[in-house]
Design a protein that fits this description.
Strand content: 15-25%
Structural class: alpha/beta
Largest sheet: 7 strands, mixed
Oligomer: single chain
């Protein structure tokens, strides 16, 4: 990691400017979450009205805090942020993250305030994340530097090799919790908020160099730096990392919501589609697919000449029809559907059928559709899928579980097999995987 990336994602000395001694307050959460999830670096709470905060020495101002500070999380109201950023500049803090809203998303007055804060940061060499930023989480580094309520979950946080960059802070919590329910984990999850300075493209470029990450997922409300995004995505591709994205704002109502949320301008969707494709970023249309598709892209490369077909092996005809129907709407045809209903949960027969499907030269990928046995006999129902995936050629394989079957989903996730809970997400992810292309020169 570069020095900036270390200060941003893996700081060892963190100042919490405006930290509260009242554990019920939002401004106390960052300190609580950091310690609860195992952060073993130094925390320096800044509050002129307390000598200690939640058991740690507090300091009346940033100027009076000892030693070098890697990262400052500014928890103050919008009207006091400029002053705090100036203090960060005096102390040569490399990164300041700003929680409060009331900036560009709040109209002309807020936009002017944001410009003043940015000017103060640039004058002192401070890089800003936010404002209107709920924070970030580095799971391997045990750095839960966020006020997101999802961090009330029991430790340890689910670890994995997927990173998430999101304009929306609340959706970091939603994706982390939904992923955990599926047995999926993360390396880094970071919100960018209003992107006054550091934005999604900057964080993508940094995570392209992260050894703990294989797939980088983006939740985008806008694209403020298209050239930077293209360059960062190319760096990620060269480093062997896939980038997948969900872009909000396809409808007029969604675009309006993006503006009011982070001051984003959504832009014409056709232009966004072309930019993402040219950048080598696989676009997903289904939000569930953004969470579940990562294993399809992990340590993978685009297909050379996709036929836009998949082979289906199923233990339930009705659920397979759902998947085939959604695949057809996505422009992907089923080369063959092998109905193994009578085989039930016999792993050998399922593995053999999937092995044949994966070897079928007519198709680009294979999908296993598992019925009720996934819920009641997880040890048997996915054994054949696991066996086939272990012996498979390098061809994408995915599973759709018709019932709610969290244990089967966890077993598949542990093995690195993409597992979907809806036919819509399965079809969308397979479409994105088959149509994924390298970045254009």
């Amino acid at each position: 990691m570069t020095p900036l990336a270390r200060a941003l994602f893996a700081p060892r000395r963190i100042a919490l400017i405006g930290a509260s001694a009242d554990p019920s307050r939002l401004t106390a959460r960052a300190q609580i979450h950091l310690r609860r999830h195992g952060f073993d670096g130094e925390i320096l709470p800044i509050n002129p009205r307390a000598e200690t905060i939640l058991g740690e020495p507090a300091y009346p101002s940033l100027d009076e805090a000892p030693g070098t500070i890697d990262h400052a999380f500014i928890l103050l109201g919008a009207e006091r942020v400029e002053e705090a950023v100036a203090a960060c500049a005096r102390r040569q803090v490399p990164v300041a993250m700003v929680l409060s809203d009331g900036f560009a998303e709040a109209g002309a007055e807020g936009a002017a305030r944001q410009q003043r804060v940015l000017a103060a940061a640039r004058a002192g060499g401070v890089r800003l994340l936010g404002p209107n930023c709920i924070g970030l989480i580095n799971v391997p580094a045990r750095t839960a530097l966020s006020v997101n309520a999802v961090l009330a979950m029991e430790p340890p946080l689910p670890a994995g090799r997927t990173a998430l960059i999101s304009h929306s802070g609340s959706l970091i919590g939603a994706i982390l919790s939904r992923g955990a329910a599926r047995g999926l984990g993360y390396s880094v999850l970071a919100a960018t908020g209003n992107e006054a300075d550091l934005g999604a493209a900057d964080l993508l470029a940094m995570l392209a160099e992260d050894d703990a990450t294989d797939v980088i997922a983006l939740f985008l409300e806008t694209i403020r730096d298209p050239d930077g995004l293209r360059a960062a995505a190319a760096r990620a591709f060269e480093a062997g990392k896939a980038v997948i994205a969900y872009k909000l704002g396809r409808s007029a109502a969604g675009a309006a919501m993006a503006v009011s949320h982070t001051g984003a301008v959504a832009g014409a969707d056709a232009a966004v589609e072309a930019l993402l494709a040219a950048s080598g970023i696989a676009r997903l249309d289904d939000f569930e697919a953004l969470i579940e598709a990562a294993p399809l892209f992990a340590k993978a490369r685009p297909l050379g000449a996709p036929r836009r077909t998949v082979s289906v092996v199923t233990t339930t005809g009705g659920a397979a029809a759902l998947v085939v129907d959604r695949l057809g709407l996505a422009g992907i045809e089923a080369a063959e559907v092998r109905d193994m209903t009578l085989a039930g949960t016999q792993p050998d027969r399922i593995a053999a059928a999937l092995g044949e499907a994966l070897a079928d030269p007519r198709s680009d990928a294979a999908v296993a559709v598992i019925g009720s046995s996934a819920q009641f006999r997880p040890e048997d129902s996915v054994a054949g899928v696991l066996r086939a995936a272990g012996d498979a050629p390098r061809k994408p394989i995915a599973a759709f579980l018709a019932p709610d079957a969290p244990e089967s989903a966890r077993r598949l996730a542990t093995a690195g097999i993409a597992c979907f809970r809806t036919p819509e997400a399965a079809a969308d992810a397979l479409r994105a995987r088959l149509l994924w292309r390298p970045p254009l020169p």
